[in-house]
Amino acid sequence: MPEFPRVILRNNKADAVRRFHPWIFSGAIKTLEPNVHDGDFVEVYTEKGEYLASGIYNSGNIAVKILSFQPVDDLDQLFLERVQSAYFLRKQIGLATSNQTNCYRLINAEGDGLPGLIVDWYNGTAVMQAYSVGMHEQRDRLVNALKTVYGSQLQAVYDKSGTVLHKSKAQAENQYLLGKRTSGEVLEYGHRFVVDWEEGQKTGLFLDQRENRERLTHYVEDKKVLNTFCYSGGFSVYAIAAQARCVHSVDSSAKALEWTRQNVALNHLEAADHEIYAADVFDFLKTCDADYDVIVLDPPAFAKGLSARHQAVMAYKRLNAQAFAKVRSPGIVFTFSCSQVVPPDQFQGAVTAAAIESGRRIRVLDHLTQPADHPTSIYHPEGLYLKGLVLMVE
Fold first, then answer.
1. Are residues 121 and 175 in the same domain?
2. What pLDDT, on a 0 to 100 scale, did the predictor assign at position 167?
3. pLDDT at 303 over 80
4. Nearest Cα to 65, choosing from 128, 126, 138?
């Protein structure tokens, strides 16, 4: 067995680890061996010398992110097993073998036993983002595991960690670790999208909204639809293809709107009544006509940290109140929050406050969340970040 540096926990701080929570906070640590540095793979022990877990050390608030609750003697094998397990799950749910969808999340951090790591699959290209120095230093092991699991299907691996690690000590650059740029064209439920993982947000396409985009199609036939914060037009493409009478796409980013145009054209939907507006969504909702049958509210995370949570909740209330004022009776509102620090009850509370302010009859038809290729660990409720509601407004 290799010798890894040790982290010793305080006597009263081991219970969370025994309950399989994958995070150890800095306040739980009693002592570090002198040779422990950011990014090191470490073993965690109690003061009495009982082994608890193995993971990656970082000098921040979350000091250790756990990769295994059993001793590890081969990190290459650990990464291979994690990637194999993740791929098997995507096969089980029908994504890895679908001829209608060839893009999905392969590694969802703690949900797939690799905290601090995201890997999205885009029709032969794997796009990774490491959110810690230590996980970024494991990128060669990840590439080797991906090559073993996917074989000739794997054309390229793009490391986009520089985008999220630019403020850290890591020397992370956005670069290809294997192969080179591919066309970026993917299928999602038969709809075609061009994904720009180099310039786009996150890894290029918001894969977590796939099932919710499909769900929208049940409400839009012959309806006037507003897609706010449209990004690359995912909800718009689905709505137009489902025979919406009219679709308006709104975003403040000129680049996002160009992607929307491109994706509408790629699906041969140019003949549809589709209008694009370059505008701040809040400003647009103040002045637009109050005749939409369906409104989609899919904003970026209003809160990145706990300090911004109250402000975010107020923003969700204001956004939903504006939508309730602009939707016909009876109308449908799809409303979302992807802010991890805003829990479901606070998000629904903000929407409820907006509903009360509107004075309208509003019923909850469905609760939405992230799909099965974005799994969470039952021991790590913090992994649930996407919240959504389907509302009927009368």
1. yes
2. 67
3. no
4. 138
In this prediction, residue 271 carries a pLDDT of 82
- What does the pLDDT look like over 243-274, one tens digit per residue? 999 999 999 999 999 999 999 999 999 888 99
Determine the structural domain holding residue 364 and report its residue range: 206-393
Supply 21's token pair. 């929570």
Residue 284: CATH number of its domain: 3.40.50.150
- Both 286 and 326 in one domain: the answer is yes
What percent of the chain has pLDDT above 70?
99
Alpha helices in 104-224 (DSSP H): 133-136, 139-150, 162-165, 210-216
Residue 170: pLDDT band (50, 70, 90) is low
Instruction: Determine the length of the chain.
Output: 394
Q: Are 260 and 319 in a shared domain?
A: yes
What pLDDT, on the 0 to 100 scale, is given for residue 1?
Answer: 63
Q: Are residues 44 and 157 in the same domain?
A: no
Residue in 103, 230, 288, 338 annotated catalytic: 338
Q: Nearest-CA neighbor of 334 among 234, 193, 194, 246?
A: 234
Q: Are residues 163 and 222 in the same domain?
A: no
User: Residue 102: inside a domain, yes or no?
Assistant: yes
Residues with Cβ within 8 Å of residue 362, at least 6 apart in sequence: 324, 355, 391, 392, 393, 394
The residue out of 23, 50, 68 marking a domain boundary is: 68
Q: Which residue has the tokens 């422990």?
A: 36
Q: Which of 101, 167, 180 is nearest to 132 (CA)?
A: 167
Q: Is the pLDDT confidence value at 35 over 90?
A: no
Q: For residue 130, what are its two tokens?
A: 């490491």
H-helix segments, the chain: 15-18, 75-92, 133-136, 139-150, 162-165, 210-216, 234-241, 254-266, 281-287, 309-326, 344-358
Q: Give the C-alpha separation, 37 to 260, whole Å.
A: 45
* Shared domain check, 389 and 258: yes
- Whether 230 sits among the annotated catalytic residues: the reply is no
The DSSP call for residue 306 is G
Band the pLDDT of 180: cuts 50, 70, 90.
very high
Do residues 318 and 387 share a domain? Answer: yes
* pTM across the whole model: 0.95
Residues 213 and 303 in one domain: yes
